[in-house]
From TrEMBL:
Zn(2+) binds at C135, C138, C188, C191. SUPFAM superfamilies: DHS-like NAD/FAD-binding domain (SSF52467). PROSITE patterns: SIRTUIN. Residues 3-287 form the Deacetylase sirtuin-type domain. NAD-dependent protein deacetylase which modulates the activities of several enzymes which are inactive in their acetylated form. InterPro entries: DHS-like_NAD/FAD-binding_dom, NAD-dep_sirtuin_deacylases, Sirtuin, Sirtuin_cat_small_dom_sf, Sirtuin_class_II, Ssirtuin_cat_dom. PANTHER family: NAD-DEPENDENT PROTEIN DEACYLASE SIRTUIN-5, MITOCHONDRIAL-RELATED (PTHR11085:SF10). The lineage of its organism: Bacteria, Pseudomonadati, Pseudomonadota, Gammaproteobacteria, Oceanospirillales. It comes from Billgrantia campisalis. NAD(+) binds at Q109, N110, V111, D112, G229, S230, S231, N255, L256, G257, A273. This is NAD-dependent protein deacetylase. Binds 1 zinc ion per subunit. It comes from the Bacteria. It holds the Pfam family SIR2. Keywords: Cytoplasm, Metal-binding, NAD, Transferase, Zinc.
Length: 321
């Protein structure tokens, strides 16, 4: 890192630390940008556009057997990215910030479970957890690795060396194109009628109302909202930024590239979430905010206008959902 880059990073860290000192109880919305350092690809580039074709739609998965064959065949190859992923710097930093009393809860759009692996306790998995599958008829759940073992047994030879070299895509998908007509997808062994689907919210589906209410409660109880590693291009995450703004709560963002909520931020820092949040935890370990553990902050002044800090070299495109 050059001297200029270091000075910019230091300035960004100082601004974020000042924000936390002023608003010491944060609700946090996270996206794929906090998990890219764990080896999980993201969906969007620095402008917020798709990096690859949009993922599976809920209606298509539920209505077409051919779509389910293609989905599960590719997942049998690509899901290793999620299985092998381990918490990265951003996950560990947020867990420590929770332990310090600064982060009061995390609303994650990711389905990888890495926040919990890192030690975070108050996590709303907005879009569910990819490690489970659910029967869409009777509601029975089973572990995904168990279902994948059955898929592999029913489709011997599918996981060839050629398939193993397929490029990984977000959320356990793989860039694999073949004739999927012969791929066998078992139905529910409990009711004998249902379709197994990952226990996640696909595009085109709705987040359960109770889950949204749980996430909104975290926003309402916080002094401010921090967005980390998300472009918020999908409404299911953007709604929390909008709700916080309507409630007069200041918003800060640490993300590489444009987001849907750029006009709402009191503080926008274009930087790696892992690097900046790790720096924040180190700063707070040295001098934790007194208000963070024991009481709410004093009445807020109006949030300052948004200003973006640009890291050296420009954003590398790690802009997620």
């Amino acid at each position: 890192m050059t001297d200029t880059a270091e000075s910019r990073q230091a300035a960004a860290l100082s601004r974020l630390t000042d924000f936390v000192a002023r608003y010491p109880r944060l609700a946090v919305v996270t996206g794929a940008g906090v998990s890219t350092d764990s080896g999980i690809p993201d969906y969007r580039d620095a402008s917020g556009a798709w990096k690859c074709p949009p993922p599976m739609q809920h209606r298509e998965f539920m209505s077409r057997h051919e779509a389910r064959q293609r989905y599960w065949a590719r997942a049998l190859v690509g899901f290793r990215a999620l299985q092998q992923a381990r918490p990265a710097a951003a996950h560990r930093a947020l867990a420590e910030l929770e332990a310090l009393g600064v982060v009061t809860g995390i609303i994650t759009q990711n389905v990888d479970g890495l926040h919990q692996q890192a030690g975070s306790r108050r996590v709303v998995d907005l879009h569910g957890r990819a490690e489970l599958v659910r029967c869409m008829h009777c509601g029975a759940r089973r572990m995904r690795h168990d279902f994948h073992a059955e898929l592999a047994a029913r489709n011997p030879g599918w996981q060839t060396a050629d398939a193993a070299r397929a490029a990984l895509r977000p959320d356990g998908d793989a860039d694999l194109e073949r004739d999927f007509a012969g791929f066998t997808v078992p139905g529910c062994g409990r009711c004998g009628q249902g379709i197994y689907k990952p226990d996640v919210v696909f595009f085109g589906d709705s987040v359960p109302a109770a889950r949204v209410a749980q996430a909104m409660a975290l926003v309402e109880a916080a002094d401010a909202l921090l967005v980390a590693g998300s472009s918020l291009m999908v409404y299911s995450g953007y709604r929390f930024a909008r709700a916080a703004a309507r409630a007069g709560k200041p918003l800060a963002c640490v993300n590489l590239g444009r987001t849907r909520a750029d006009e709402l931020y009191a503080l926008k820092l274009e930087a790696s979430a892992g690097e900046l949040l790790s720096g924040l935890t180190a700063a707070l370990r040295a001098a934790p905010p007194a208000a963070g553990r024991h009481h709410r902050s004093p009445p807020r002044e109006p949030a300052p206008p948004a200003r973006a800090w640009h890291g050296s070299g420009g954003p590398p495109g790690a802009t997620p959902r």
